[in-house]
Design goal:
CATH architecture: Alpha-Beta Complex
CATH class: Alpha Beta
Number of helices: 8
Helix content: 25-40%
Strand content: 25-35%
Largest sheet: 9 strands, mixed
Shape: globular
Mean pLDDT: 83
Length: 211
């Protein structure tokens, strides 16, 4: 059923550098990896040499495209990365995420196409806790129709919580959001700079985005 091209992009920021290869390897172990486009964006000089060494094996992949481009914020980096995506569907994979299993991405893309979803989110894990985005009100990595994603307008000065802005836009425009509750497709790792751990900062940004 995989007939619509999927672009997966990764934007490198303050993640432990050694996580990069682990996250990308989980992507390259997916059953449909030969049918997807992979975009990697570095938008800062911090730990660039270390990152390039860790990515060395991926530069030889036919579907791996690397960009180093200065951006003022993470949201600007997202807009740049998505502008380079050619797929009908787009998904972001962060370096602190690992795809679980061999067919997780195939399952998600098939379900997106079958349901004609504009956005599909799946159950995932944070450490040893299972998170259901339908009930826990947390935006996770999602497969999104490219034209709908590019229509999202982010708040001026926004530096993170792009998922909140996306969901606000999709709900406002009555786009179709589908939840895949039946299998867990991601494992999200927490590090000392993770915004997931900074609840006060998250609440402050969400208040700004929802005002």
């Amino acid at each position: 059923m995989i007939g619509n091209k999927l672009s997966v992009y990764m934007v490198y920021r303050d993640y432990p550098p050694e996580w990069l290869s682990e996250s990308l390897m989980s992507l390259y172990e997916q059953s449909i990896v030969d049918d997807i486009e992979i975009i990697f964006l570095s938008y800062g000089d911090k730990e660039l040499d270390t990152m390039l060494c860790l990515l060395d094996d991926f530069f030889e992949k036919d579907n791996f495209r690397f960009y180093h481009h200065k951006c003022d914020s993470f949201v600007d980096a997202i807009k740049f990365a998505t502008s380079k995506c050619n797929g009908d569907y787009i998904m972001r994979l962060d370096a602190d995420d690992i795809l679980l299993g061999y067919t997780s991405l195939e399952y998600m893309l098939n379900k997106t196409i079958e349901t004609n979803a504009d956005l599909l989110m799946n159950t995932y894990m944070i450490n040893d806790q299972i998170i259901n985005p339908r009930t826990d009100n947390l935006m996770c990595q999602a497969i999104i129709k490219a034209d709908k994603l590019r229509a999202v307008e982010y708040v001026q000065g926004q530096t993170f919580r792009d998922g909140t802005t996306i969901l606000n836009t999709f709900n406002k425009n009555k786009y179709m959001v589908v939840y895949g509750d039946d299998i867990c497709t991601f494992f999200h790792r927490i590090h000392n700079k993770s915004l997931t751990s900074n609840k006060d900062k998250v609440k402050e940004m969400d208040k700004k985005l929802c005002s």
